[in-house]
UniProtKB/TrEMBL annotation:
Name of a matching Pfam family: UQCC2_CBP6
InterPro entries, per database record: UQCC2
Swiss-Prot/TrEMBL GO biological process terms: mitochondrial respiratory chain complex III assembly
Localization: Mitochondrion matrix, Mitochondrion nucleoid
Record bears the keyword Cytoplasm: no
Keywords assigned by UniProt, alphabetized: Mitochondrion, Mitochondrion nucleoid, Transit peptide
GO CC term, one of those recorded: mitochondrial nucleoid
Keyword Lyase: no
Originating species: Triatoma infestans (Assassin bug)
Protein name per UniProt: Mitochondrial nucleoid factor 1
Length: 97
């Protein structure tokens, strides 16, 4: 249900959740070290996240403390932008030394 955000390879929440489920349930229903009540709490919490429960309950304004829109913030957190920052940072270091 949780789509993979291709702009955040290796840092995507949906991908992280799927990997954790695989780790916890490597044997499927035969997994023995599963605390049923803890599993139920986690499942409910993930359903709330996936169904935008908190997003709907606590609606945000259209901008952030930085003054950027949600779409601009998403762009700043993308892999492409982080790679650009890394390349620019290397340029600054080269200029100093």
């Amino acid at each position: 249900k949780w789509p993979i955000d291709e702009t955040k390879r290796g840092r995507d929440l949906g991908d992280f959740i799927r990997k954790q489920v695989k780790v916890k349930f490597t044997l499927g229903q035969l997994s023995k070290q599963v605390d049923e009540s803890e599993c139920e709490k986690t499942c409910i919490a993930l359903e709330r996240l996936a169904n935008d429960h908190y997003r709907k309950r606590y609606a945000r304004i259209d901008f952030s403390a930085t003054g950027l829109t949600a779409e601009q913030c998403k762009g700043v957190l993308s892999d492409d932008f982080l790679q650009l920052l890394t390349e620019n940072e290397k340029g600054i270091v080269r200029r100093l030394f």
